[in-house]
Structures are given as C-alpha cells and as structure tokens.
Design goal:
- The protein has 14 helices and 16 strands.
- The strands form 4 sheets. It has a 6-stranded parallel β-sheet with strand order 8-5-3-2-1-11, sandwiched between helices.
- β15 and β16 form a beta hairpin.
C-alpha cells in the first residue's frame, strides 16, 4: 500500500512539472531578451489613436516591455486631440519613443509636438518635421488675437517638452510654431531637436540601447539591443473608425444615404433602401464628428433633401431636382472645403460635382418613372383582364374554362360558331357575373400556356 502511494505521488509531481513546463508564457518571456512594443500612427490625428495607444500600453505592461516605439507619419490635426495624446505620452510609466518613419514620412503641425512629447525622438532618413502653426479643432477662423494666444500657448508647450534639449533646438521648435518652419531629419538632428537618425527599427533599437530617459521624474536606462519586438496592430473596429475619418468617404456615405432615403420615400413599403440609408447616414455622422467641418454646409444639404422631396410631391419636370443637386454640391463644398480646413482633410471637388450630378440624374429618373405611373390609366380587379389573351382549358361549346395568366376562369364564347378545342387562343372582351366573355382568335396568334 505504501509503495502504491509513493508511485501515485511520483506521477502527481511529474504531472505538475509537465504542466508548469508546457504552460504558455507571455510573449517576450520566452528568453532573457528585453521586450519592446510597437504601434503606428498614420494620416491625420484621429480620436481612435487614444484608445489604440492605451491598448498598446496595456500590452507593454502585460509583457514587461522596456519601451514603446510609436511610429509616426502624420500631416497633423486638431490642437485639442493633440493635447490629449501628449498627456497620454507624458503620463506613461513606460518610456515612449516617437519614431518618424518610414522614409518620406512627416511629423507636421501637431505631429511636431507629438514627436517632442516622446521620452526620446528619432526620425528615419528623408523625413521632415515642422510647420506647426495652430489649427482650430473645427477648422474655424480663430482670428488674429486668438491666433496669437494659441501660438504663445503652443510655444510654451514646446519649450517645456524641449527643456532638456539645446537652446538651438528650443529656438527651432518655437520657429516651427511662429513661422510654420519645417526642417529635414539632418537639420533637426544637428539642432538637437531629435535624438537619433535611424534607417530601420532594428537600427533604432541598437542606438537606443544604454540611453537614459526621464520618465515621470525618474531616470531609466533603456535596454533595447536585440529586443523581442511585439507589434500591436489596430483592431478591425479601430481600422473602420479610422477609415470613417476620411472626408471623401464621409461625403460618399452622405450621398448614398440621402439617395437611399429618397428612394424609400418615393416607393414606400419596402425596408432595404431605408435601412441602407439610415446606416450610411449614421456612419457619416461619426465621420462628421471627427473631421474639421463647417456646419453651415449642412443647411444646403438639408435644403437639397427638401427640394428632392418637393419634386416627388409636386413634380416640376425636374426643375426642383436640378436645384437640389446644385444645393447638394454647394453644401458639400462648404461643409468640407472651407478656407480654414486643412488641405489634407478636404474632399475632392471632382468627386463632389460628379456625385451631385449623378444623384440629380438618378432622382430625375425616379421622378419621370413616377410621372408615367401616375398618368397610366387605372386598371383594377376584373377590368385589368379585358384585352388579355388566354388559352382554352376545357372545350368551349360555348361554355367551358380558359386559363388567363396563372388563373383558371369559367368562360363563355360570345361570337358563335363551332366549339373551340383545348389549347385554342381566345381574348377576353368582358365579364358577366363571375364568368369571362371571350372571343376566338386566329390560330397564328401567339399564346403562352401555363401547365
């Protein structure tokens, strides 16, 4: 009995040991190499980036990462969003290194300040940084006095972020805000505005190794040589929300949504067109909440919608439809392409004009189709069968049955003569009670049988 207990304990201990050896360990814990987490910010600043950066920071904590590499390529964006991202970077307890990459990338406008906010900054060859003049969160004209105030606030911000850098670097950072100056990677490195020029992520990790950075008043020495890299991609939903911040896509969603709603109104009773229209308009509404737009343009788009509906209720031979198409084009241009909206967030003018004309023509076709339906003589019930051709089902002598379309009717032959056999062609000429009155047709008359 004691021997059996010893054997059972041995196998039990062996199972525990095997479970410990086979248990999954966090990425990066497979060996003694340091762990680095990377993420990428591309295109104009987007509110999705806040949650994306937060998620990457959580991944870094879970894997004991020594640093987070934020790869940046942006033409800029709103000041409000920039400030929130800067706050996230500066309050991180894991060093965040901003790396402007790949080749040809830029850290323009708000991207300049994001780069300076990093605990260390690097740029790839052939990249640029600067042109950090202030832009209002909604693209509005902030006025000369307000512009001066915003510039002073931003200059104070960059002086704080660049406090540990050289005087030429601080001066250059302020010139980027005051005079919208932009510089190349070599000029930024020479002035001390950035810490490294790295041709690749591996090159950057090798250069970062041993560098000391200040993280929340604590000096941390980076260990990044031969680090295990964990890339944190955007989730499907984050990708979708990022795509919806594209002005051209938002405009197309608005156009499709308006057209679908108009189709539903002109031909009520279905649900597919209305459902598609509502979904498109809801997605467009998200994009409008992210993009810097001039909301005055919405008035023109609403006016276009009203003109289209009026042409349904009181047809004017397309005049209101043409006016609605024009109002839609003007509204879209005012909405997205106001003077203070950054060029990279504007909608394509040919796209607006082409879509507006297509929308007008499509709706005009609906109006014409509706007019033809209204002018057609009303034919309902049995009267709609008069003139139709049927096929004799049982011989007419003179009473029998005929098949008209998919229906079988009792019929009487009204023109006399010999009986009509099965398969002969007849034409409906009237009704008597529930019996159709038919006349014979020449044998060559084409008929359709429904057997």
């Amino acid at each position: 009995m004691d021997a059996k207990k010893v054997v059972l304990r041995f196998w039990f201990a062996l199972l525990i040991l095997a479970a410990m050896l086979l248990a999954p360990r966090p990425a990066g814990a497979q060996d003694d190499r340091p762990v680095v987490v990377t993420l990428r910010f591309e295109d104009a600043l987007n509110p999705v980036w806040q949650e994306y950066l937060k998620r990457a920071t959580q991944v870094a904590h879970q894997n004991g990462a020594t640093a987070i590499i934020l790869q940046l390529d942006t033409p800029g964006g709103s000041i409000d969003l920039m400030n929130r991202l800067v706050e996230q970077i500066r309050t991180s307890d894991i060093p965040i290194i901003v790396y402007v990459s790949p080749r040809g990338a830029m850290a323009a406008s708000a991207g300049t300040i994001l780069t300076l906010a990093g605990h260390a900054a690097a740029m790839a060859p052939e990249t640029t940084i600067g042109a950090a003049s202030p832009v209002g969160s909604q693209g509005e004209d902030i006025g000369e006095t307000m512009e001066s105030k915003v510039k002073e606030v931003l200059k104070a911000t960059v002086r704080t972020l660049a406090a540990g850098r050289s005087q030429p670097a601080r001066d250059l950072a302020q010139e980027m805000i005051q005079d919208a100056r932009a510089v190349s990677v070599d000029e930024a490195l020479e002035a001390g505005l950035i810490d490294f020029k790295a041709s690749s992520l591996t090159d950057l990790l090798n250069q970062l190794d041993g560098t000391q950075v200040q993280v929340q008043d604590e000096t941390i020495t980076l260990r990044t040589a031969q680090a295990s890299v964990i890339e944190v991609p955007m989730t499907f939903m984050e990708e979708l929300l990022t795509i919806l911040a594209n002005a051209n896509l938002v405009f197309l969603l608005m156009a499709v949504g308006v057209q679908a709603i108009l189709i539903e109104l002109s031909s009520p009773g279905g649900w597919v067109a209305g459902f598609i229209g509502v979904i498109c308009l809801l997605l467009a509404a998200y994009g409008l909440g992210v993009l810097p737009v001039n909301w005055f343009g919405i008035l023109f788009i609403v006016m276009a919608f009203i003109l289209f509906i009026m042409d349904i209720k009181a047809p004017t031979h397309g005049a209101l439809t043409a006016a609605g198409a024009g109002s839609f084009i003007v509204g879209a241009l005012v909405l997205f392409n106001s003077p203070n909206v950054p060029a990279f967030q504007r909608v394509s003018v040919p796209l607006v004009v082409g879509t507006g004309l297509t929308l007008g023509l499509a709706f005009f076709a609906l109006v014409v189709y509706g007019l033809r339906a209204q002018r057609a003589p009303a034919r309902m019930g049995q009267q709609s069968l008069i003139g139709q051709i049927g096929v004799v089902n049982t011989p007419l002598n003179p009473i029998g049955t005929v098949q008209i379309g998919s229906e079988l009717w009792s019929a009487i032959l009204v023109d006399g003569g010999p009986a009509l056999p099965r398969g002969a062609a007849v034409q409906v000429v009237g009704f008597e009670n529930l019996q159709v009155r038919v006349k014979r047709l020449p044998k060559e008359t084409p008929t359709e049988t429904h057997e």
